[in-house]
Amino acid sequence: MTPRNIACVLAHPDDETFCVGGIIAKNASAGHRIDLFCATNGDAGKSAAVPVSSREELAEIRKRELAAAARILGIQSVETPGYPDGTLHTIDPAPLIDDIIAFLRRHTPAIVLAFGPDGGPPGHRDHRAMSRATTAAFFLSGLHRTSRLFYHSWQFPLPDPRLTVEPIPPTAGIDVRAWKATKRAAFEAHATQQLSAAAFETSFVDVERLAFAAGVPQPRAMIDELFEGLSS
Ligand SMILES: [Zn+2]
Q1: How far apart (Å, rounded) are the C-alpha atoms in residues 114 and 101?
Q2: Which of 86, 139, 211, 221 could bridge 168 with an S-S bond, Cβ 3.0-4.6 Å?
Q3: What is the structure's pLDDT at 50?
């Protein structure tokens, strides 16, 4: 097995657990290196159970929760540049794209995991903004010649009829059954986010799905591991 680098470029603390928690845990336990770029500190979010008096305090708490979840999932490094939570779509994207390019060039990942333009099942604006910025950064970094960019995808329709956003059809289905307990433990580390328990259950699937977006083509329309067909 060749150890590879996997880079996750996401918007909020807990996106790593909801979207790709099983995939991260599985690949980390197989000896691959996982690095996370989390654009915001999640300081515009709600807090359940944990009393919080200010956005600054919530940012600090959520960074600690993210560090704990990252340890549980096996993520080696977490970068939190502190872009504005909830309003990523309103900022000048150029500095954000530059930061993502620098992150990608530093880690030279074989695989980049990002949001699709749909913004995931909730269609979150921050997720959609991160999809655009990450896609631009992937090409501008030059890594599109050697790496593969996947967007988060999911089973559709979802059991919750309010989640009507349709995903890009998946091209990778990763069996994460053996890592579901790890994923749940990572969610529990996000103590302020337990109001999202119902959404978490929606994400708590046996097979996590991804959609090929760019880079080195897949050898088949549906693969069951990330690196199939990538030269080492
Ligand atoms: Zn999010």
Answers
A1: 13
A2: 211
A3: 80
Residue 1 CA, ligand 1 centroid: distance in Å: 32
**Does residue 35 contact residue 8 with C-beta atoms inside 8 Å?**
yes
Residue 231 CA, ligand 1 centroid: distance in Å: 32
Q: Model's pTM, two decimal places?
A: 0.97
Which strands make up the sheet holding 111-114, listed edge to edge?
77-79, 33-38, 5-10, 111-114, 148-153, 207-215, 172-175
Which domains, from first to last, does the chain contain? 5-215 (3.40.50.10320)
pLDDT in tens, 22-63: 999 999 999 999 999 999 999 998 787 788 889 999 999 999
**C-alpha 41 to ligand 1 mean position (Å):** 10
- DSSP state letter for 197: H
Structure tokens at 87: 């309003």
Cα(114) to centroid(ligand 1), Å: 11
- Distance from the alpha carbon of residue 80 to the mean position of ligand 1, in angstroms: 14
